[in-house]
Amino acid sequence: MSARVPAVRCQCCHASALVLSFSTWYHHNAIKVDHKEMYSLHTIETERGKCMDKRIKQLLVIVLSVVLLATAALGTSFAEDGIPMAATAVDPVIQVYLSRLALTDRLDITLTTPYGLTFGSEGAELYAESGSKLAFILWNDAIYLYMDGLSLRLGKAVELRRCEGGGDEKRPGFYRTGFEPLYLGDLKLTINEGKLYPVLSIHVEDYLLGVVPYEMSDSFPLEALKAQTIAARTYVLRKAAANKAYDVVDTTNDQVFRGYVPGFANAERAVSETRGVCGFYKGKLAQCYYAASNGGQTELVQTVWPTDEDFGYYAAVRDPYDVENPASTVRSLAVKKAYEAGETAPYALRKLLAQLLADKLTEMGYDPAPESILVHRVSDVAVDTPSFEGSLLMKRLLLTVEVSGRTRTEWVPQPLLTDPDTEEVFLFETPSPTVAEEQPTATPEPTPAPPTPTPAPVYGEFERIEEPFVLSAPIFKTVENAFGMNISGNFDNEIWSVAETETGYEVQARRYGHGVGMSQRGAEQMAGSYEKDFREILAFYYPGMELMRYDVGEAVLMKAEPALSATAGPAPTVTPRPTLMPVTTELQPGQWYAAVTEIDDDSSLNLRSRPDLGGEILMRLYKHQRLLVLERCPEEGWVHVKTDSIEGYVMESYLTNE
To answer: Over the stretch 164-223, which tens digit does the pLDDT of each residue have?
Structure first.
């Protein structure tokens, strides 16, 4: 194929125009051949004129030679989308620790393509054909393979590499037997702390197919998914290192990776249409942090993780897109300015006041418990003390309150009632004693002491305290825990705000995650409501970052001679979850049954030791676990639950009543 440079007249004054025209054409027609940067200089046809002399031709040749040499030295070419090629190469294969498999002593897999197995100190090899079912079992500190009646001791490690020659050539990999996700890569199994330790070697573009639809929903706009893809690709390639057991883990500690599941068409398109594109800063891969929601302002890297590294491509800017998105996470508490007789302020507010006023109320002779505080008026509610100048991240909550208190003066033990289950009652006449043979008198067992009755407090009448209390409280953790408005458990960084209405105040907390870099909810809003493309989204969240494309090539499969390999028998059914705990206790008045339903199939619900997010996690409850709900807690949104074997507290929003 040839391309024409616009014809120019050969007058001396047009020589520079000819060079400029060629330069423009060249950058739009550079091509790549055999994965090496080679450029095809197509035929340049100019309108022949009689006044085009030899000197002009010689000058043109010199200029074009300089352009070619300079461009080759820079290693720059452009794809159709205008994104330049990176000057350096990258290894596109990354190592992923598959922690989500939660392996102990067994792994069953089914192959969709032939695999070669390498094991033992001398590098013994075994070939398994497509469709084979393999079981790896850890026993006596060694890994054993079971395949179609074959039992083989592999030692302390085994590597499985994909081979050419059959199977699903488009999606070659393996399934965990009985599960849907396909792992498009090679696998290394070792032993670590008495358990099987799986690390997947996978091409970065195949890896992204298992990341993008889980880090950002497939229902998001395509341009938002493209921005997510580029951020995720940049993140993982930057973390790749040859001297580590793995590069990333498959959880939110790095990026959620669940393997390839068909059906996420938008995510697949986003990966395909941005193939190899990464973010760069000063010629090196950028660190593309991102989070679910920033709460209305992007955070600086050094604010969250103190560092001397140059993150000049980040900026702390207001993010109206995140705030506008109705799906962004928000926690709120409504407080009235005045509470009339018979009205009770929210328990969360009274809990906070009990903490802040404990010493003063005790000094005045009043009970400092939440139930002994009656709120009359609330005013001057505001947030204050930004973490740095211009930051929306505030550290203190201000408020003025007028309250009543009451005394708690004495304790009255409750009478102990006879246990009806142990009281002997005869409804009919007393039977005559039976004459029996004399037996030796048994040694009497000690009678257990009756349980101590729970003392019931006696309260005085509420008495209004004349002077209002002007309070200033730290948002993290004091106010946050009292109000139950913690969103990001690992960070004290929610953006708090107060909106005053005619009758009260709306206290809000926003931000889900660290807040650094791209907001996924903000990107969704930018693409969906404002029709921004991925370049505009990334430029907003990483204002100093440049986009370039790596030539990532294709995944390379190992060549191996096909060998006979019988199809393995069906693997034993693998139980992916522990057996659900029984609940056989009969209902008492005010109790009901419920089940854990509002979580993902592969997720769990924390059972805590007390009704707040700071409570110790007693265990994790899986989906469909049945529970006996004993009561709703005073702490809003929490319930007291139990099974036959454990008791604790969970958030009611994750349950469905029977």
So the answer is: 877 666 889 999 999 999 999 999 999 999 999 999 999 999 999 999 999 999 999 999
User: Hey, what are 654's tokens?
Assistant: 């994750």
Contacts of residue 59, defined as CB under 8 A and 6 or more positions apart, other chains included, come to 15
**pLDDT tens digit string along 96-146?**
999 999 999 999 999 999 999 999 988 899 999 999 999 999 999 999 999
Q: How far is CA 220 from CA 257, 267, 413, 524, 536, in A?
A: 18, 9, 62, 6, 16
Instruction: Kindly tell me the burial class for residue 575, based on how many C-beta atoms sit within 10 Å of its own C-beta (0-12, 13-18, 19 or more).
Output: exposed
Contact indicator for 592, 586 with CB cutoff of 8 Å: no
| 477 cis-preceded (ω within 30 degrees of 0) | yes
Parse the chain into domains and list their residue ranges: 12-74, 330-411+457-510, 592-657
Q: Which of 401-405, 440-444, 490-494, 520-524 has the lowest mean pLDDT?
A: 440-444
Residue 573 identity (one-letter amino acid): T
User: Strand 93-97 to strand 248-249: parallel, antiparallel, or no bridges (unpaired)?
Assistant: parallel
Q: Identify the three-state secondary structure at position 59.
A: helix
- 500-519: pLDDT as tens digits: 999 999 999 999 999 999 99
Return the CATH superfamily for domain 592-657.
SH3 Domains (2.30.30.40)
pLDDT of residue 572: 53
Cα–Cα distance list, 451 to 414, 418, 422, 444, 455 (Å): 12, 11, 14, 21, 12
Can you count the helices (H) and strands (E) in the chain? 13, 34
Query: Nearest Cα to 283, choosing from 88, 93, 90, 91?
Result: 88
Q: Where is 139: in which H helix or E strand?
A: strand 133-139
